[in-house]
Amino acid sequence: MTSLAEMIEEGDVDAIHAWLAEAGTLDIAEELTRIESGEKALALRLLSRDRALDVFESLDPADQQQVLEGLRGDRVRQLIEEMDPDDRARLLDELPAKVAHRFLSQLSPHERQLTNTLLGYPPESAGRVMSPEFVSLRADMTVEEALAKVRRAGSVAETIYMLPVTDDQRRLVGVVSLKQLVLADPGESVADLMATDIHFARVTDDQEVAARLIQEADLIGLPVVDSEDRIVGVFTVDDAMEIIEAEETEDLARHGATSPLGRPYMAASAFGIARARATWLLILIVAAALTVNVLHYFEGTLETVVTLALFIPLLIGTGGNAGAQAAVAVIRAMAVAEVRFGDIPRVIWREARVGLMLGVMLAVMSFLPVAVLFGSDIGLVVSLTLVALCTWATFAGAMLPMLAQRVGVDPAVVSAPLITTLVDATGLVVYFLIARAVLPMI
Amino acid sequence: MTSLAEMIEEGDVDAIHAWLAEAGTLDIAEELTRIESGEKALALRLLSRDRALDVFESLDPADQQQVLEGLRGDRVRQLIEEMDPDDRARLLDELPAKVAHRFLSQLSPHERQLTNTLLGYPPESAGRVMSPEFVSLRADMTVEEALAKVRRAGSVAETIYMLPVTDDQRRLVGVVSLKQLVLADPGESVADLMATDIHFARVTDDQEVAARLIQEADLIGLPVVDSEDRIVGVFTVDDAMEIIEAEETEDLARHGATSPLGRPYMAASAFGIARARATWLLILIVAAALTVNVLHYFEGTLETVVTLALFIPLLIGTGGNAGAQAAVAVIRAMAVAEVRFGDIPRVIWREARVGLMLGVMLAVMSFLPVAVLFGSDIGLVVSLTLVALCTWATFAGAMLPMLAQRVGVDPAVVSAPLITTLVDATGLVVYFLIARAVLPMI
Predict the structure, then answer these.
(1) How far is CA B253 from CA A320, A321, B22, B34, B442, in A?
(2) Is the Cβ of A195 closer than 8 Å to some Cβ of chain B?
(3) Is A411 strand, coil or helix?
(4) B359 interfaces chain A, CB cutoff of 8 Å
(5) How many CB atoms lie within 10 A of CB B280?
(6) Which of residues 291-310 of A touch B (CB under 8 A)?
(7) Residue B224 β-bridge partners
């Protein structure tokens, strides 16, 4: 099969037409993320209005922006006007302020107000991503009345599967699901059906926390309330999945010592990728300068026993790996809320034992081969260093992310690569101190 | 607040009762993952039947197993009988075969058959996690008839929000949502409402692929069909979220050079954690032995210019970081299907350029400080090595995961730590070859 990118390159409009007629909206969206920014709008211009909107809504904000740049004014207005308010707020957030302002001014007053409301909440908050278009019920309604209201108001709501129930002050008092309504007797009252022990989020709550709640409690939607407990929106499961994926991509990027790209890999330029990686690489090489200092300090020892140099990569590599193991485990456990700050003493005590066990295992296995090839003195130095290094690296790998969280830094920032680099320098000190203590000739 | 673990330790049954009466099911489930295996059943024994089931269903299979071990036979049977068939299949999968068989034999014939069907599909397949209890419609029904069928059959179905439409051979021909049915005119026909351009999975499809499809297409449920296109189940969004989380935890674990724990962090023992990490640590230290060999080979060069040893940790650390950056980016892009095998030439060309850019940047920045402190010859060697190393590491980091996928190995296995270790050894060769070529005294 020829890809869309190739068809565009060849300027084969007939082939593009034929392919677009066959392809699903997801396929089209996927191909769009893989072609160059200037040409992304082309496919959308050839699609019908409805399909174009479907494709457009499946794109990331970064891709959406590139598409908009290639479309004429009325088509742009149409696409933006027809988006869900929360998706629209997310897109406008990413656009340059001037462009965002121009788009906002073109919206109908109703849509503009919805979007403005969302944009008024803090970045990364549940308020930003909730849908302000929902159907709420009253506890004194019968099931029949409730279903009638859903039919009347449901067509513009983003979800009608989770229906918040409010009192006359619009305060959230319960939740019923559409499933309950459909399966219930028409004469039953909403008050009898609704759950009152419910999960909800506040507009100012962190997006990720709200998304994780949806995931853990297996919800279709989560009511979002303001500071006076009044319902102002609904956070849906598809937004939750998107937020969790973005967070995981970000955490993963940090473990790989890079900033998140913010766009699909194939849509980024080589320069854009290099820029996303440069900062961390610089931070880490500056931190690594510490290892040069440590070795410079022990240069005399190295000159006397050059053999010690042979084990430097192996030892610091192993220490780095042990530290990364602990860091990844603890950061992940904190991200999914399995570990809290109060667990620090237990986590430290446990990781220190884990490090000791691993260190002893590696030391026992390494002693014989090293002793046979380089003498039992060197074997002893390497083995002792492995024990000390694994214990220390595991301890530090678990400790640093927890401390970072304590002082308000995202624990994923103190990720494996940073810990590895810090462990490198201290590991070398340990290695040379042990060598000086054990080797007779120094 | 005293934690459940502490209350149990103090044997304060009144306090436990009071806490259980107040706490939500998610809170109880979360506390249960944090207490020791022998005591997990205690809280469940004190709960009402319905709440106990809710809590039990929120637990991971590993925790569920520990709970079951602490309960009496009839309570065990009851809990298992009342689980959703797909969750039950997942639990039975994790239990020792003998125990699983005993539980299965206690189920009612209907529940046993549902579970057996699921267990008949391959591990990790969509068939294993789909729900076999769903409501299907026929295209010639009216909306009124369809809603009547949903009311009749919906109470046992896991979801009624996505309703597959079949022909008289039970073959999938379309999908309607409950939202469409509720909002439509009662006299309309299902055929007019249903979408026919639909997403579906086959029973043998990979779970993760099906889950990612639900995520990307923003679905509430995905119909699952057998090899003859007959509908056999529904894959729901909450199962999709769980599967994606498990996959991400697994990928993250691999980036941290460890096997997945398979249970919540706090519920694992120190020995269990050490065991999960030992294998990779051993593999990596054996791979690192290569660096000892390389340095042994160049020992003469090192003896002549001991200063070269000072830069070993900095250089291999930087190479490792650059390799990890590329590996994490490419593995993630493959996991979310942004990069396919056919993209190899483009990815390699792009990553090689990224590596070169980063290498040149670091080389330019490092030259002056190194030249001032250790002489311009050493500065030149370090800078040239940084260029070569970053280019090579970035190339290898992008390449190896793609090759792994090509030969059928999960790309996440060829993760950052393995690539780092492999780059270490080759990086040292490059370093010493450059040193020999540049330095006059060798």
Answers:
(1) 15, 12, 36, 20, 44
(2) no
(3) helix
(4) no
(5) 21
(6) 291-292, 295-296, 299, 302-303, 306-307, 309-310
(7) B201, B233
**Cα separation, A347 vs A153, whole angstroms:** 51
Comparing CA positions, the residue from B361, B353, B351, B344 lying closest to residue B329 is B351
Q: Are B130 and B86 in contact (CB under 8 A)?
A: yes
* Assigned token pair, A194: 């609704």
| Cα–Cα distance for residue pair B182/B150, rounded to 1 Å | 11
* Residue reference for tokens 């149990």: B8
Per-residue pLDDT of chain B (442 residues; tens, 9 = 90+): 567 777 877 878 888 888 888 888 888 888 888 777 777 787 778 888 888 888 888 888 878 888 887 787 777 888 888 888 888 888 887 777 777 777 777 788 878 778 877 878 888 899 988 888 899 999 999 999 999 999 999 888 889 999 999 999 999 999 999 999 999 999 999 999 999 989 999 999 999 999 999 998 889 999 999 989 999 999 999 999 989 888 888 888 887 778 777 777 877 888 888 888 998 889 889 988 999 999 999 999 999 999 999 999 999 999 999 998 998 888 888 887 778 778 888 888 899 999 999 999 999 999 999 999 999 999 999 999 999 999 999 999 999 888 888 888 777 666 778 888 888 999 999 999 999 999 987 6
Name the pTM for this structure. 0.79
B149 and chain A: CB distance < 8 Å anywhere? no
Residue to substitute from B58, B273, B372, interface A, most A β-carbons within 10 A: B273
Q: How far apart are CA A139 and CA A136, in angstroms?
A: 10
Complex ipTM, two decimals? Answer: 0.78
Please, is A429 exposed, middle or buried when counting C-beta atoms within 10 Å of its C-beta (0-12, 13-18, 19+)? middle
